[in-house]
Specification:
Chain B: It catalyses: citrate = oxaloacetate + acetate; citrate + acetyl-CoA = (3S)-citryl-CoA + acetate. Chain B: This is Citrate lyase alpha chain. Chain A has two helices and four strands; from the N terminus they run E-E-E-H-E-H. Chain A has 90 residues and is α+β, with helices and mostly antiparallel strands. In chain A, a hairpin with a 7-residue loop joins strand 1 and strand 2. Chain B folds into two domains: 146 residues, Glutaconate Coenzyme A-transferase (3-Layer(aba) Sandwich); 236 residues, 3-Layer(aba) Sandwich (Glutaconate Coenzyme A-transferase), CATH 3.40.1080.
Chain lengths: 90, 468
């Protein structure tokens, strides 16, 4: 899947995550900020990369501002951002 | 005769401030207080260094103290509670000496016994006469009770009352008497009323909070303690207030007449007093305008000193007659130890206040808190900081169930019989971790930035720095 335009999903509310995706030329450029970074940074990054993998995304800039979302919420927000970026029909 | 001195600078000179001395403040003006900042700014301007500050609490408005620490004006700090803004800097390790954290009962006990002798007490007073008879009940900056300031007034070597409402002598309805006061300073404003008391404190509308409040009320109902003479304390958090509201309905329905409400008084406890749920309110601190009005107008609403409230060394304190107290927690561990000092990353953002005092005294100590907050479980294997020892905590109420300390067989039996959702605390932790995942341990620094001094004087935990 190709990221065609910049798109966002989620909010900055507690227990949510705000995801911004945009086109990128060379691979996956991932930036994660999280209030639970110390406790869960590996899990969050793995969940995000799983979703990118599921959608065959190879080139993307993805910025995540996590306010303590649980894993299913992270996956859903990333998926929605990808769909809004024009890559797939929802 | 008059004790009025024109400026802070003059009064600091008259008191004979010297490097190495201990100055004290109370926190009744809470996040609206201007007095700590104005006094410390003056002390800094006058060129003093190496001052110990003993303040019953430090709030976010006191952020300027961070610079006084960096400049070695303030080199030691003793508090019962510290807000997150100053707490974050302390956690980064900006002080050489660890902050001594006491409880609301431990602080006056140590002042009275001479463990922490106060050289100069600066007492913010919403109304005072020119001889220092003063009160928090009147004036534009009214805060109600001055409970935490009494030990300072009675035991400091020099006592300065700072007021923005100087009235004719004698102020008949005084809290602190002129017999303790050396000087009075009149300033434009001692604080910002919007930060001193909230206009209204509101109960939560969050269904999770209401559910916890409903469980908490049922625990009280079936504890065996809810009968005539019942006594109760709760905080000002949204869910705690909901308990007060549900409990009031229950007490009126069952025609139970309690003896006293203690606190930390909010409008909801005032409602309970006025509805006849209690004979009296014992008030060490007012949280909202309704409480301030009540303590001024209603004789059954009494101001009490911090020592009377909670000191472990007085001949008797009110906490020892408490039936039920409802408290919060940032973390609780499977041994029921509670953390209210640091957040889940180890940053200081609170303190005992009366937490450990009331837990030690009350017959039923109940923690009410949501099982998870933003992907973090409330329940851990070991809290990052022990504020209140688990042996003094009886029940944890969450939206997913109620855990009872195994030391309380009697209570487990009663609550099971009442068909409340009782669950082992380890099981409750598993439920939380199914939702959140298992967190990595937070690694803290080696430097000790805080000592948690329990009410008996022992250091029950040390707070370590956060590695940035």
């Amino acid at each position: 899947m190709e990221i065609k335009n910049k798109a966002a999903a989620g909010t900055l509310e507690s227990s949510d995550i705000y995801v911004v995706v945009e086109p990128n030329e060379n691979g996956i450029d991932l930036h994660l900020e999280s209030i639970v970074y110390n406790q869960f940074n590996e899990e969050i990054e793995k969940a995000v990369r799983d979703v990118l993998n599921d959608f065959n995304v190879e080139n993307i800039k993805i910025q995540l501002k996590d306010r303590g979302a649980v894993e299913c919420a992270i996956r859903a927000r990333v998926e929605t951002a990808l769909k809004r970026a024009g890559g797939v029909n929802s | 005769m008059s004790k009025v001195v024109n400026t802070l600078k003059e009064v600091i000179k008259l008191c004979g401030l010297k490097e190495g001395m201990r100055v004290s403040f109370h926190h009744h003006l809470r996040n609206g207080d201007h007095v700590i900042n104005m006094v410390l700014d003056e002390i800094a301007d006058m060129g003093y260094k190496d001052i110990t500050v003993n303040a019953s609490s430090v709030f976010d408005i006191h952020a300027p103290i961070v610079n006084h620490i960096r400049n070695n004006v303030v080199t030691a700090l003793e508090v019962n509670y510290m807000g997150a803004v100053v707490g974050r800097e302390i956690s980064k390790g900006i002080m050489n000496k660890p902050v001594d954290f006491r409880s609301h009962g431990g602080r006056p006990s140590d002042i009275e016994s001479g463990k922490t002798p106060i050289d100069i007490a600066f007492i913010a007073a919403p109304t005072s006469d020119n001889m220092g008879n003063c009160t928090g009940k009147y004036g534009a900056s009214a805060c109600g009770s001055l409970g935490y300031a009494f030990a300072d007034a009675m035991y400091a070597k020099k006592v300065v009352v700072i007021t923005d409402n100087l009235v004719d002598y004698p102020l008949y309805d005084f809290s602190i008497s002129e017999t303790y006061v050396d000087y009075v300073v009149s300033v434009d404003k001692i604080g910002d009323p919007t930060g001193i008391v909230s206009g209204t404190t509101k109960i939560t509308r969050d269904p999770v909070g209401l559910m916890m409040a409903s469980y908490a009320t049922k625990v009280i109902q079936h504890s065996g303690l809810l009968q005539n003479g019942f006594s109760f304390q709760t905080g000002a958090g949204g869910a705690s207030l909901a308990v007060a509201k549900y409990l009031k309905e229950l007490m009126l329905k069952e025609n139970i007449r309690g003896s006293f409400g203690m606190g930390g008084i909010t409008g909801y406890l005032v409602d309970m007093l006025e509805a006849g749920c209690f004979e009296t309110l014992m008030d060490v601190q007012c949280f909202d305008l309704k409480a301030v009005e009540s303590i001024r107008e209603n004789k059954r609403h009494r101001e009490v000193t911090a020592s009377h409230y909670a000191s472990p060394t007085v001949k008797s304190a009110i906490v020892n007659n408490l039936d039920v107290v409802i408290l919060g927690a940032t973390q609780i561990d499977t041994n029921f130890n509670v953390n209210v000092h640091t957040d889940s990353n180890g940053y200081i953002m609170g303190g005992s206040g009366g937490h450990s005092d009331t837990a030690a005294g009350a017959k039923l100590t109940m923690i009410v808190a949501p099982l998870t907050r933003a992907r973090l479980s409330l329940i851990t294997d070991r809290v990052l900081c022990i504020s209140t020892p688990g042996k003094t905590v009886d029940v944890l109420v969450t939206q997913r169930g109620i855990a009872v300390n195994p030391l309380r067989d009697d209570l487990i039996a009663r609550l099971k019989e009442a068909k409340l959702p009782i669950i082992d605390i380890n099981e409750l932790k598993n439920i939380a971790e199914k939702i959140t995942g298992i967190p990595n341990d937070v690694k803290l620094g080696d430097k000790v930035v805080g000592n948690v001094i329990y009410r008996d004087g022992t250091v029950i935990d040390k707070i370590r720095s956060v590695v940035v």
